[in-house]
Amino acid sequence: MDDETFLRLKAFFPEVNLGSDDETFFRSLWHPKSFKQYDLITEAGSTERYFYFVLEGVQAIYLLNEKGEKVVLGFSYSGSPSGVFDSFIAQAPAQTFLEALKPSKLLAISHADYLELFKRCPEFHQWGHEFFQNILFGRLSREVELLTLSAEQRYVAFMQRCPEELKTIPQKYLASYLNMKPETFSRLRSNVSY
Amino acid sequence: MARLILTSENQIQRLNGILGKVEKLQQLPLDRLTMSPHEKSWCVAEVLEHLNIAYRLYFDKINHALEQLDAIDSDSKEFKARAWQKMVIEMQRPKNGKRKWKIKTMKRFEPVLEVSSLDQEQVNVVFENFFSLHAHLKDAILQSRGMDVRGIKITSAIGPIVNFYLPEAFEFLLCHLERHLVQIDKVLG
C-alpha cells in the first residue's frame, strides 16, 4: 500500500491516534483486492470474510426476493466502508450479495485481523461505537424515508445527497434502492430537478 | 404454465446453502454416514457418491460450453427455461421437503461403494470429491454470468432426449442436489 492510499485509509478512522508501532501493525493488516465489473464480491449463503474500505468503484448490496429479483439495500463507493457487516461480525452465512457495479479496488481486513486490531489497539472501540451508531442511524433514516416519502420525494432526497459516481451506475439499481420501478425512476430523472 | 425464470444469483445462493449443509454432514460420525434405514435405501455416503457420479457426467460438457461461449459486457440476465426443460427440471425439484416424483435411478448413476466395509478414509474421499466437483459447478455458474449462454446447448446425462442451455443445466443439477438432500434428511431421520 502506498503512502497516499494509507492516508486515505487512516482518514476513515479519525477517532484513532496510533503510535508508530501500532500504525505499522495496522497498515500490515490491510490487503488490496480488485474486482471486475459485475463480479460478486460476497455471495449470499457464504460467510463474509472481510471488512472493506473502498478505494475505487461502486458496489451494491442486495438480496433476492421471492421472484428472484434483486432488492438493493445500499451502495458503497470511493472512501466508504463496504462488506456484508452482519455476516462479517457474526461469521454466519450472508443473506445478501455484494456486487461490483464498476471495476473496484478495495482494501480488505480479515475477521481474525479485525479482532486482533481491537484487542491490540483499544482506541478502535471508540471508532467501532461511532461507526455502528452511524450505520444504525442511517438505516433508521432510510426506513423513515421509505415509509413516509412519495417516490418523487425519495428521488429528490437521494439525488441531493448521493455522490456523483453513484449516479453513473445502471438505473435499475438506483430504482430498486428507492423502491420504485425503473420506469418511474427514469420518468423522475427526466422531469424532476433537485 | 407459469414461467421458470432462472438467475445465476439465485443458483449461487442455493448452491452455497447446499455446500453449507454438506459441510455439516461431514461432522457426523462414520456410523451415521454409512447407516441405511433399510436394505433398499442408500446411506448418506452413497447418496453423495451418486451426486458425484451425476455431476461428473456434466463436468466436461460444461467446460466445453464455457470455452465456446462469447463474453458479454453487461450484468447477468434472467433466463427463461424452455417448456420441456422446465418439466424435466420440475420433476427433480422437491416441493415442501418432499420428493414429488419417484424417479428410478439408472444403473450407471448408482454408487458403487461396499457399504459394509466403508471406512473413514473412503468416506472422506467421497466428501472431498463432492466439494471439489461442486466448487467446479459454482465456478461455472459464476463464469456463465459474463457469457452469452444462448450460444450453445449441452446434451443431458440421460441422452439427447433432453438438451440444456447452461442455466437450465445448472438448475437441473441444483434441483437434483436438493432432491437428494431431502433423501439424506429422510435417511438420517
From TrEMBL, chain A:
SUPFAM superfamilies: cAMP-binding domain-like. Residues 32-135 form the Cyclic nucleotide-binding domain. InterPro entries: cNMP-bd_dom, cNMP-bd_dom_sf, RmlC-like_jellyroll. Pfam families: cNMP_binding. It comes from the Bacteria. This is Crp/Fnr family transcriptional regulator. It comes from Flagellimonas nanhaiensis.
TrEMBL record, chain B:
InterPro entries: DinB/YfiT-like (IPR034660). This is DinB family protein. It comes from the Bacteria.
